[in-house]
Design brief:
Largest sheet: 5 strands, mixed, barrel
CATH class of one domain: Mainly Beta
Strand content: 15-25%
CATH topology of one domain: OB fold (Dihydrolipoamide Acetyltransferase, E2P)
Order of helices and strands: HHHHHHHEEEEEE
Strand order of the largest sheet: 1-2-3-5-4
CATH architecture of one domain: Beta Barrel
């Protein structure tokens, strides 16, 4: 009795697992190749979008200036925006400022003029000459009187800083209308305006001016060493009429003066010591150098 034995190759578990994994990977790769989507997709308009784009574009160029695919509404908005930008940057009469800036300036000036006139009307309750609605007294003068008033106003303007010829002639005309002669009006107006606030006065007239602050102009005669740490400079300033002591406080932050220099001091505060008047420069004061 014979027995037949079949020879079977024995395979380890690890080898079987490796073969199985290889088979699975190959199958997954084949499936993945079938479902891969191309990275670049071509986008196409629908039939409705294609028809609308054809209508809006107007191939016959009946509507000029329209971009491809741009609707009529979008074209109107774009052109309106471009027109507004061009209008905004358009120069007024080829001048320096644009139309918008010029219009804003006109409105601001009109508002300033209204406020100025309102202030003058309130000031007229104290000084009737400030009333902007009052008639011009020069209209009541004869031709000869008006010619003399204008001539004298021109002469006074050269002597009075900060006053226009029109303002001086108006004040002269007011006095002439009241019955004062032209020469008498000239003397009165000169004395009045010479001591007005903001007018540069002679140093000799500082004591006579009935104000707490004055403006003078002269030459720095001498400077002394300050004896107080809060004083910046102290010295004498002179002009053709006299000499006055001037003290500059450090808190006023004024520029330094040098001896022999021509200076104009505005809004200097008056003070008295031993019966003599002197000037002090505060934060409201200002030093100017006319020669520079």
């Amino acid at each position: 009795m014979s027995t037949n034995y079949a020879t079977v190759d024995e395979v380890s578990d690890d080898e079987q697992a490796g073969k199985y994994q290889t088979t699975v990977d190959e199958w997954a790769g084949e499936v993945e190749d079938e479902w891969v989507v191309e990275a670049e997709v071509e986008l196409r308009a629908s039939v409705e979008q294609d028809i609308q784009g054809t209508v809006d574009y107007a191939d016959d160029q009946e509507i000029e200036g329209r971009l491809f695919g741009e609707t009529l509404e979008a074209q109107e908005k774009r052109e309106a925006r471009e027109c507004e930008v061009e209008r905004t940057h358009e120069r007024w009469d080829r001048g320096r400022y644009s139309m918008r800036e010029e219009q804003t300036r006109i409105v601001v000036n009109e508002g300033s003029e209204c406020r100025r006139r309102a202030f003058k009307r309130r000031a007229a309750s104290v000084d009737p000459r400030c009333d902007p609605d009052a008639p011009d007294p020069r209209a009541r003068l004869s031709k000869e009187e008006l010619a003399m008033v204008n001539e004298q106003a021109k002469r006074l303007q050269a002597k009075l800083e900060g006053w226009s010829r029109a303002a001086i002639s108006r004040r002269l005309a007011e006095r002439v209308v009241e019955g004062i002669g032209v020469l008498g009006a000239v003397v009165g107006v000169f004395e009045e305006l010479e001591q007005a606030a903001g007018t540069v006065i002679p140093i000799a007239a500082v004591e006579e001016v009935d104000r707490g602050e004055v403006c003078i102009e002269g030459t720095v005669k001498v400077l002394w060493e300050a004896t107080h740490p809060k004083i910046s400079q102290v010295g004498l300033i002179e002009d053709e009429s006299g000499v006055c002591k001037v003290t500059v406080w450090k808190a006023s932050e004024q520029p330094l003066m040098t001896e022999g220099e021509r200076v104009r001091i505005r809004d200097a505060a008056k003070s008295w010591y031993d019966g003599r008047v002197s000037l002090a420069l505060t934060g409201w004061s200002r030093i100017e150098f006319p020669g520079q």
